Model the fold of this input.
Amino acid sequence: MTEDQELFSQILANMKKNGTLRDASRVEEAYLLAKEAHGGQLRRSGEPYINHPLHVAIILSELGMDEDTVVAGIMHDVAEDTEMTLEQIGEKFGPDVAEMVDGVTKLTRLTWDGGKVEQQAENLRKMFIAMARDIRVIIIKLADRTHNMRTLQYMSPEKQKEKARETMDIYAPLASRLGISKLKVELDNLSLKYLEPEAYNRLVMEIDRKKLSREGFIDSIVDEVKAKLAAAGIEADTYGRVKHYFSIYKKMKTQNKSLDEIYDLFAVRVIVNTVQDCYAVLGIVHEMYTPLPGRFKDYVAMPKPNHYQSIHTTVIGKNGLPFEIQIRTHEMHHTAEYGIAAHWKYKEGGKAGLTREEEKLSWLRQILEWQNEMSDDSEFLSSLKTDLNLLSDDVYVFTPTGDVKVLPKGSTPIDFAYMVHSAVGNRMVGARVNERLVPINYQLNTGDRVEIITSQNTKGPSRDWLGMVASAQARNKINQWFRSQNKEDNIDKGRDLLERYCKAKNVDMSELLKPELTEKVINKYGFLEWDAVLAAIGHGGLKEGQVVNKLLELKKKQDKRTITDEEVLEAIAENKRQPLKKTNNGIIVEGIDDVAVHFARCCSPIPGDEIVGFITRGRGVTIHRTDCLNIINLPEIERGRLISVEWAAAEEGKQKERYTAEIALYAKDRIGITADVSRTLAEQDILILTLRTYGNKQGISTFFITFETEGVEEISKVIQKLYQIDGVFDIQRTVG
Ligand code: MN
Done:
């Protein structure tokens, strides 16, 4: 048998042992295809390349991963290094395998500046998980890295250090998070060997020497414990072991101790059948030896986040030497070694399989909680496809110098620019993503490298940007800029520009600057007063032509009182055939006085809002705000159904109508903020209908509040009050 044939038969043997083999010929086909695809390629060691993916598949089959993962492991370097395409892999082995190979290839291509790894490790680990889509991709990548670390001696010394650093900072913690201590321990030890070769070799030697001198001691303890447990009728596997080099090294480093001062170099492990037995063993052990105070840890009752369970206790032996005892069940032991991988082979199981699947999902949930951003989408969690990318609310992108920035999903280069610095955002004129020029509203993807183009000559951010950003931070900084620009000279300049424009276009400005028209413009652009509009024109945030055209449009609408569109008339006729209710909602519909009126849920218009009616098929007229997205995006063919409507003046002595409105409030997170918000609303006699709040890890809370109100005037009063709450920095009416 050739070497690769031997490796292949080892894969099959592992899969048979673990019960994961479904179709041996399929695995063999992968092996033969990969061997052919890699052809004459050699590794640095001089071995045929095919040995590497086979070793990776051996690791995966040892972990008990399902057949698809093992097949993907065999094929993992094929798409990157050979002629074979993902489509071909998909045709042969199905979409799951092709997707996993694709995922591994993408992660392989992800490169980062070696010098930044340490400080950026946490973000890089998150990025890794966000990019992997399927958690099995990470497990393949861990197996890949494990074999590469085993064969690191063939690399140059610089490459060895770089890979070892990356492994210690990124891969080993990922293995730990997934609970796969079997790989974590090996990755840690191998990293240490290349990063601190002298310390590592000395440690190995010293521990070997200690092992010899203490072998008798540990053996005698194991014998004693065995005898006691047998007498108590407890079935158990009891053995002594040396702790892992890396964990000892870490302890010496962090606690600044010499090897002689580390008293739990050696440990006794007791593996039993039931949880009950665990505690029975604990009782017996504490009777035999004196427990060291403060050294007892019950991870059975309180599992670690990565599902590790065990009881740890340090006791003092007869000759005064302390040692650690770990007690766990066989199942806990399996989970401790294989972590999330331990739960894969049960995928197609029957009854037991179901709980395993749930466990696996709760595991993923914990990984995501560790990511700190997680929408509680339980419906999604119950689906089996572990699309982490969808679950993650963040995108991870690189700065030109290789730093990782975390932004909310949907972020654009504008968000990025303001995250770097407000000065960068305010001077931004364009952006490059992955060395290509992109529009500034380009949606960033995880892994993108973003570069902001700035200019000293820019007039600053534009108001449109508020609609393009996804982060509260960017929105806040843009608003701040506009507020700071709201100065006297800008107001004067704006008034001047407006006058000149009207003169040039031969527009009578005094006709336009009537409160009923300007108020609507103030509202539309989200200002509080006309001076703010002028200031915005003054510093270039708004174009004077834009404002004049809007005023003209409003005036035209006001002047025009007849319906011309035949289609509209037809639609009204259709409505008239039905018994119609009187409009008692405070709305006047142009040309008709007897029509059912509903308020659109999407934008909840209230008196003071600029509104438009939509003639529905058989349900009367629905009232929308003119800035409602559903109206803005209305297909051309439906536009004929729009009809002018307006608010009726409030009748004297009659009780005012109440309307529902929603605002979004952004605030710096602090204790009591929710209470302050609801108290302020109560003080304003506002009846809250719903209040939802979301936190994010930048420490920003978002509140969505729906409440009853008389109209826009009341809302702006309420908003002013809310702005006075400590920490609140932005409030907006939501748009459907
Ligand atoms: Mn590889």
Observations:
- The pocket of manganese (II) ion is lined by residues 52, 76-77, 144 (CB under 6 Å).
- The longest helix spans residues 197-231.
- The chain has six domains: 3-195, 198-340, 362-484, 487-562, 571-647, 659-733.
